[in-house]
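User: Hello! My lab partner asked me to get a predicted holo structure for this protein. The small molecule is fe (ii) ion, SMILES included with the sequence. Please write out the structure tokens.
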Amino acid sequence: MTTIYFDTHLGDEERRRRLYTGDIFVFSPRPSTQALTEFARELIEEAFRPLDPQRAQDSLPVEKFVEIVGPLKPRFIHHPRTLDLLLALLRDLGAEMEKTYFDVPRLRVATSGGYLTAGVAYVLHPHRDIWYSSPPCQLNWWLPVYPFESESSFAFHTRYWKEPVPNSSHEYNHYEWNKVGRASAAKQVKADIRKQPKPLGPLELEPELRVVCPPGGLILFSGAHLHSTVPNESGRSRFSIDFRTAHLDALASVGGAPNIDRHCTGTTLFELRRASDLAPVPEEIIRLYDPNPPADREGLVYKPPAEAVPASGT
Ligand SMILES: [Fe+2]
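Assistant: Hello! Below are the structure tokens for the protein in complex with fe (ii) ion.
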């Protein structure tokens, strides 16, 4: 059973407990979420000007589209204002800032009609985020920048919450992915050759659960949910923001959602920062997830934009 909570009154702890059982939380647009999506919209529209970003794919050769989206993504991800808005959002939604670790928000685009399905607009096959070396307690925060439809959403495949899926996550090492994958994403226009963890056999994807909310709304769910990008048939490119969090108590107890079919190596924990002061995840916690972390951390560690570090930061 999956419960969807709308605009819950539950506090952070109870919300997390329910997220770890597969429940999904949806929030209406509110000033803190809208501030983040509005800022993303400004950057997107600046990059595509004079075209309408949702329709730009109708008049641009795909290579030109990639040329625009390639630099747009890091501009949003690493912008100091993005960090400020993300922290304000977490605070507003009741996250326990001293124990919540987060990573930089991603900006994603899902073009319509198979215009671009690789690299910067990779269409995600059914997967659990935790197959990509995330901790089982990872929570995903997802926000649409423009109105979208069921035909341009993503789907949860809820029957697999408790049912293992044979998959190739044993071939996924996060450090390798960081080194090779991201750098080449911008170059991959027609086909994607990055080694993604995938289901190894046929799946019963129905019943699918899709959630559609207005721009600036928020869908919060466990990174252990099996989910996939719906092939966009809406006629418009879909732009969305997502980021991940993990709570210290769940990290320390290696708790969170059921961990039933995850065989990847390495950990994403180097990329997370504490919401209260941007401190990294303590080394002893990281070693619970990777007993032999690499000595060379270059490229693994998230570096916040210097001007955005709060005065109270370490
Ligand atoms: Fe995902």
